[in-house]
Design brief:
Elements (H helix, E strand, L loop, with lengths): L1 E8 L8 E6 L2 E7 L5 E5 L13 E2 L4 E3 L6 E3 L5 E3 L8 E7 L2 E7 L1
Antiparallel strand pairs: 1-10, 2-3, 3-4, 4-9, 5-6, 6-7, 7-8, 9-10
Amino acid sequence: MSSSVRVAAVADVSEGEILKVFVGDRQIALYHMPGGEFRATDDLCSHGQAFLSDGWLTDEGHVECPLHGGCFDTLTGEPTLAPCEVAIRAYKVRVEGEEIHVELAD
């Protein structure tokens, strides 16, 4: 079972940018992809103690970790560039009007 949580307004994150949002004690990186799509993953890199919300979006739809330069696919959470090897959680994102919601597994 999953629940949907409002995490931000569309206006809170510019296209091509990343926003850190909090859902309870979870830190989530919210991505506004070029072209307008929103995606979300865990914010903490699985390789080192760095926040992906401090990183950069790539042209391939990946996020580059600011600490060691490894990358993750923002849609699946799978690592795409070393030194990252362990996947992070990716969340389904839904836009309702001007609000962004993330679906969390219970």
